[in-house]
Amino acid sequence: MDRLLEGKRVLITGGTGSLGKVLLRRLLSNQHGQPARLVVLSRDEGKQHDIRVQYQHKRAATDEVIYRNFSERLEFRIGDVRDYHSVAGALRDIDVVFNAAALKQVPTCEYFPFEAVRTNVEGPENIVRAIREQRLPVETVVGVSTDKAVEPVNVMGMTKAIQERIFLRANLDVPSTRFVAVRYGNVLASRGSVIPLFHDQIKNGGPVTITDPRMTRFLLSLEEAVDVIMHAVATGKRGETYIPKVPTALMTDVAKALIDGRGIETVVTGIRPGEKLHETLISQEEAYRTVRRGEYFAVAPILPELREDAPGAEFLTRAYTSEHDLMSFDEVRALMVKRNLMVGQQDLALDGEFLR
Fold first, then answer.
1. Average pLDDT over residues 200-210
2. Strand 280-282 versus strand 208-210 pairing type
3. Which of 11, 258, 287, 351 would bridge with 316, disulfide CB 3.0–4.6 Å?
4. Can you tell me the mean pLDDT for 208-219?
5. What's the pLDDT score for residue 63?
6. What CA–CA distance (Å, rounded) separates 320 from 260?
7. Residue in 8, 21, 104, 148 annotated catalytic
């Protein structure tokens, strides 16, 4: 166990989402030290209430659970990253911020682009602005990004790319705070991802829908996503973007593995608005300023004022895309089994219970 967050006051924006819940559970386990306070900021009172009840080990809600909110180590705040006042209030007396609030479904962002801008761009700007204008003593801010931010072709990726640059630039505005980003691919079985869709289609007898038989994706679990975040907190330098080395797969192999010989039909429906055939975690341009750090890659900031000289460093020579180094079908199936994602396995990892 490391002591990264021992005694720290931590804010998780979007803390009731798939990633936010797993991150919160990890921090409550004290694997990274015991935080002095954990604050969850989100606009979903129902999800906050469910987590609060589970955290309190209560079967039903009581006034005690609700009104002891601010005296507990875990604090819930109703608010929205789009609103500066919500953000400024939540950031008071905070040491470490994890910005997991996002609009992340690609088609939704295509149909409502400005809504994506408000959450994915204005939200990060509100965090930076509050720290700067209120002169808050925040030590570290971690922005959660996505492979879709690299050479983006959809609104979700475009807004996430701007989020990365907002946090990158903030290191110049607020040199007393370290701003870093993490970037990763598809999270296995997170809410809104393809695996829950495949599960539902298989349970209903099919067909299973494939947008394009050539489509590939990076695959990692929610726990691995949290590992990336914590590694960035531990070793990330100001302005860097942290990226994991993760397996890649054909989505047809993922569907075939989950169907598991059931004789369920697959149909090709065509690429959805804003989708790519292959995702990229590190672009060709970024490769020349990217170094390996153990099981991770670190992309140096594009701004020369933030870049540190790395004499003798070995930089990548090509883009890092889901098209290369694909897993075999047997490897894909083994991964689905390992992650309890096969239809019919007990304790499917779709969001899980908050406390296990």
1. 94
2. unpaired
3. 287
4. 94
5. 46
6. 30
7. 148
